[in-house]
Amino acid sequence: MKSNTWWVEWPTLVLLVATYAVWGGAVFWLASWSVLLAVIVAALAIAQQSSLQHEVLHGHPLRWQWLNEAMVRPSLNLAVPYGRFRDTHLAHHRDVNLTDPYDDPESNFLAGRDWAALPSWAKLVYRMNNTLAGRMLLGPAIGQWAFMRGDIKAPSRRIVMSWLAHGITTVPVIWLVIQSPMPLWAYLVAAYTGLSLLKIRTFLEHRAHEQSRARSVIVEDRGPLAFLFLNNNLHVVHHMHPQVPWYDLPMLYRSGKDRFLACNDSYIYPSYGAIFARHLVRAKDPVEHPLLHRMLDDRMPPA
């Protein structure tokens, strides 16, 4: 449901314009003063655009979805096609499959047989990836490799068209960067850093739990990261009300906090600072899904 009669969600629209302005300022102005500062600001704008792409795939900010998508289709991160992000994320919203290594496209778990088949060096990499530091350093590369490998193995027409559209819309972004004072290598660092920032949000967004309703986290952060992630830190609220715009999620959470925490079995952290303190170099979860067989049994129809 849209937030007003005219079906224009102004906070999202204004933020979208501001994000592109910040990106342009970083690439065309800051880069002539300090490449390092330009990388940092561009990375923030790239992460913000990814959060806005998430808003768009859920039907915001306008009533015309084709126009919503046109505004965010050129992915500033260069790596993830908007169409693939949209399709895999909407599949992720089938909550009964959350964390399933096969049926949840955004799961960070591996099935036991896949984990057992990995060589020792790969197991070490995945274990490092299960710390927050490892997820930020290695996560974008591992995620991109797994994402692209899956698409190459099963290249449906829809997948091919998404990648073609991504290639076409990425060309102007790269062309603008080439015309700017920002070196292309520096922009690639910014793009990777932007994806790395997003890994902070997704690091423990979901946990293995027998009840699907209890698999999504609440992080009661109200600082810069919450804004960068457009309040998606209130993740169980988003999963229960995916059509609510980002700026209404905090009020919705406050008005029904007890209900949300009862629903997710009190899977809650006070802030991202607490998550950094607990899990920067210490894994929260095993790589192998600990409850997969039980989850599959629960989804089987009765005989």
UniProtKB/TrEMBL annotation:
It comes from Litoreibacter arenae DSM 19593. InterPro entries: FA_desaturase_dom. This is Fatty acid desaturase family protein. GO terms for biological process: lipid metabolic process. The chain crosses the membrane at residues 20-47, 159-178, 184-204. Keywords: Membrane, Transmembrane, Transmembrane helix. Residues 32-256 form the Fatty acid desaturase domain. Pfam families: FA_desaturase (PF00487).
